[in-house]
Amino acid sequence: MKVLFLGDIVGKRGREAVRDLLPRLEDRYGADFVIANGENAAHGKGLTEKTYQQILDAGVDCITMGNHAFAKKEIIEHLDEMDRLVCPLNHVSHLGEGCRQFKVNGKRVLVINILGVFMQEEYATSPYEAMDRVLKATERYGVDYYIVDFHGEATAEKRVFAEYYKDRLNAVIGTHTHVQTADEQIIDGMAYITDAGMCGPFRSIIGRDINECIQRMVNNEMTKYVISEADPILCGLYTEFNDDTKKCVAIERIQIRPE
Ligand SMILES: [Fe+2]
Ligand SMILES: [Fe+2]
């Protein structure tokens, strides 16, 4: 099984990058399943029904989320219909599905979205308790692949999570920082990267307007959130698994910068 994962899609430019570049990646890698993090897809914070549909129309099969999952309140009334959406399993609100099963080439693929605890605000309960609950609840179902989008701020907590679960999960892919790490690797058969990076404005502050961030952080001004209009970068991870052993056999970091 070949899986493509795209890092946090940020705003309109991020959605455009996925729409324009995903066909090229599909041709190159022949992916069976495409996952993308959509927590920043709607103008930098959250996801709407419209942006959800746009991302699926671009060729994504499953959308994972993060701390901004419910920033656009309108999503809450549509959660029941959004059957490709995976919300944070351990979000304090307990809204949405925290893990969802997909059938890919006859295999059962469980996609799980988990929040780290080192966030600016408190969004999450224990990632370990949440993950253990899912493993226990699904042990009799014969899940073929467990793929986790670990949405966290701290590099070390993602690595600890990965090392702790390496024999029980098939992929732990970090998201949230919007900056791709160059540490993609196979840990005893499990695919891992600390952060997949973002699909969004490249010359920006993790997707946000540079001047607005300077006004806020250097001059301490209360500014209105402004999303950058800069040309987008696309970041992600390609992974390939042996369907007999379920082990990761190939991993490749993807980064396409604007010309
Ligand atoms: Fe994000
Ligand atoms: Fe985030």
Entry keywords:
8-stranded mixed β-sheet; about 260 residues; alpha/beta; 14 strands; Purple Acid Phosphatase, chain A, domain 2; 6-stranded mixed β-sheet; 5 helices; binds fe (ii) ion
Description:
The protein is an alpha/beta fold and 259 residues long. It has a single domain (2-256), classed as Purple Acid Phosphatase, chain A, domain 2. Helices cover 23% and strands 29% of the residues. It has 5 helices and 14 strands. The strands form 2 sheets. Strands 1, 2, 3, 4, 5, 12, 13 and 14 form an 8-stranded mixed β-sheet that branches. The protein has a 6-stranded mixed β-sheet with strand order 6-7-8-9-11-10, covered by helices on one side. The longest helix is centred in the first third of the chain and has 19 residues, at 11-29. It is globular and about 55 Å long. The model has no long low-confidence stretch (mean pLDDT 97). Residues 39, 66-68, 151, 176 line the site of one fe (ii) ion.
Supply the number of structural domains.
1
Q: How many β-strand stretches?
A: 14
The stretches of 5 or more residues where confidence is low (pLDDT under 50) are none
Shape: globular
CATH architecture: 4-Layer Sandwich
Residue share in helix? 10-25%
Ligands bound, unique: fe (ii) ion
What proportion of the residues form beta strands (DSSP E)? Answer: 25-35%
The arrangement of helices and strands along the chain is EEHEHEEEEHEHEEEEHEE
SS element count, helices: 5
Oligomer type: single chain
Mean pLDDT: 97
Summarize the main sheet: 8 strands, mixed
